[in-house]
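re: that complex we talked abt at group meeting.

here r the seqs, copy pasted straight from the sheet so there may be weird spacing, ignore it
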Amino acid sequence: MIRILLFIFLVLFGATPPLHPAENVLKKASFIPHWSPQAQFAGYYVAYEKGFYKKRGIDLTILQGGPDRPSSQFLTKGKTDFTTMWLSTALRLAANGQEIINIAQIIQRSALMLVAKKSSNIKTPQDINGKKVSLWGEDFQIQPKAFFKRYNLDVKIIPQSFSVNLFLRGGVDVASAMWYNEYHTIINSGLNPDELTTFLFHEHGLNFPEDGIYTLEKTFKKDPALAGAFVKSSIEGWLYAFSHPEEALDIVLKYISQAKIPANRVHQKWMLNRMKDLISPPDGSPIGMLQPRDYERVDYELKENDLVKRTPSYYSFFVRCDKDVEK
Amino acid sequence: MWKNRGIAFKLILAICVSSGLIFILIFSFNYRFSRNIIEKNVEDNAQNLVQSKVNRIETVLLSVKKIPENLASFLENGSYHEEELLFLLRTVVENNPEIYGATIAFEPYTFDRGLLYYAPYFYKHDGKIEFMNLGTPSYLYAYLDWYQIPKELNRPDWSEPYYDEGGGNILMATYSVPFYKNVGEKRQFMGIVTADINLGWFQEVVSSIKVLQTGYGFLISKNGTVITHPLKQLVMNETLFGVAEGRADTHLREIGRKMIRGESGFVPFRSIDSEKECWMYYTPIPSNGWSLAVLFPQDEFMADIVRLNRIVVILGIAGLLLLSIAVAFIARSITNPLRAMAQATKEIATGNLDVELPPAKSGDEVGKLSEAFQYMEKSLKEYIQQLTETTASKERIESELKIAHDIQMSILPKIFPPFPERKEFDIYAMIEPAREVGGDFYDFFFIDDDHFCFTIGDVSGKGVPASLFMAVTKTLIKAKTSWDADPGSILTKVNKDLSQGNEACMFVTSFIAVLNTKTGELLYANGGHNPPLMIRSENHPPFREGGDEGFSGEVEFLAVSKGLVVGVMEDYVYQTDRIPLKPGDSIFIYTDGVTEAMNEQGELFSEERLKKQTIKLQGKSVQEIIAGTMEEIKSFSHGAPQSDDITMMVMRFREEKG
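got the structure back, here u go
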């Protein structure tokens, strides 16, 4: 009897490789978020600071992202192993022949929105017709343009920079905003929510899942376990950040000040809270799933706008790799 | 409860409570009033202070504004070469100390068709003028606020404060003026002329604001961004609205909205760093719509008044205490003598008149009262002393009167029968003295063997004078009686003597009779006295010894000549009347004490009643007649005390035997 038990024990535990690889065998990896440090990436910073990556055998280097350091280029040029990107950005890269895959769709819900002052008499999408609308570049224009098309709006598009001052000063009637960022900046520039009309694209049938984790297909093939460990650790980081918001904010603020960017805790707190809203899947399924219907919607809109011609199939584009990773 | 409390307690309570209320009223009014004054002063101060700083800043901004405006005007109206442009720009930066840097940023491809961006920028660095072309791939100025906003607004605008990473890497604000070229009818946008100001100077101006100990000023931009604040982490990092959100302070948010709307105001405000209650004055900088606020810590500007109030409260309490002590002192000065007097009065009431009364220390009401008490005690003492003396003297007089009375009685013959050897007549007399010594008298004596004189009298008045007068009268009667004298002449002589030197104007009524024991002839004279009763025994058997039963006779008042009272008119002559007595006849003489004896109803005994009584008693012996009459008088008067002496005398003539 004892022998049998011992046998089972050996089969179960002794035969499998060690759970925690020794320190000296950590695998080097790098990651760049697609924007400057902020709570939008809290999960990764927290995971790093809490040692979640190290725990799973990754010696991770987080590179500083920013508007002048496009993460897509870092990925395609092999300067980083992992990065975050919008689904639309990634699909266009893939359509252009870049062999990138989505290994986790973190943000489920589009946070992109249009904001207008009620004082400009904009209350419905139709009211935007003929108005000056400021839009960010490229990927940020896909949803607005689809929105204008859907509501048959003729608007004057003005390039939008990083600030919302043009909108605040009345240089444009409608401005683009991220719900977790610029919208809050507007609120904290003295405009009350009830003075604003907002158009969140996910409420207008244009839900483009945003931040997802991407890697090159070849990187993944070389070491799927690394990708799995990275995703698993990142998700753990997010969950930890949501359950420990103040600690997460401390970590985020540390990265922000290291990047010599003004650090505003109130703003980052708003952002982290919105991240929780955006990341948590509405149906309660595990974090990180790219829903086929979301993929299809983005794919459709991109094709509809002649931004892509051929796109990879959902199954070759999205690889759920964290399921096999041990806790 | 209240009723039974002492005067001191009531006084202290009433005075302290009312003056305490008055004090509180005055104090609170004073506090509110002075507080309002101070707040108004603070507001005026704040307004002046903030306005002066705003004016300083505004002056600089206005002078800075002119430069890009002039440059833009030059660019619109003139033609220029690149060298000229660069020289102009450099000179501007060089000659204007307020300006940190300046650029002329052209729309893409408008300066040079082959050049996307052209933006020559001169700026100061370490005291030198540096040059830089802003149009680089890493500095896409066309999308920056300082370029885009005035372009879209088609008017000059002050930018939000910002760290210009591509440019000077300092905190700056930029005034941007768009310039245009007329292409036919249209004004074509050509670019932006800017002047940058280093906000370090602003920060210095605002940081130099020091109000009281901890008051300070801060500056916010049009977006509410904190440009200067003692709390460094707020600067360029937070907006007032972010701070409000962080503190869940909707009031702060509202103030912030008013500030960025360009309003001015004086509002209560919780200091962001020290959490102190403050008053804040804010007003906009007209040029760029930024808002300057100055905080006045309430506890600091109220410090003086708080200190003053503390002193006032202490003084007030001390005053109340002093007042209580003073009241207590006054109350005690009233109540202590009163209490002592109450105690002394109790003692006096028990009869101790030698009690020491509290001395009158003051001239006030209490002093007067103690004086009055002392006077009262003294008077009482004197009065009681007098009373004692009076009583003693009265007692002496009374005892003297008693002696006088005794003497008076002793001079009246009291032994009956007085002449047991004489069988010719019986005589009995008695006197019932009144409460006081009276003036009644009677007497009888033999003038010689055959002549028996008896008399009765009543002196006017009472007391010792009357008794003396009576003694004199009695003595005189006896002295004036001689063997041949008749009652009239006796009375005339007595009258004469009494009238002489009768200064007291006393008089006496008197009846004198002389009986001839041989013949039974009775001579008599009356000096104003009651007429005697004659008891006749005519129709009856002669008097028998030992039994008077069945004896009855005529009883009538003896006819008497009118005679004046004795002792009034000196020369008055009294008549002598005569009447023969038969054996058994009796004569009843009395004084007015008999007829005027009174019962309780004030009725007099009267002559009628006397006569009836005498008739009833006529057969009795002389002694029995008098005793019976006396009995009747007493039963009539029911023992009421009689004011007059009652004197009666009965003389019965008897047949001479052997």
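couple things i noticed - The longest strand of chain B covers residues 171-183. Residues 540-551 of chain B have pLDDT under 50 and may be disordered.
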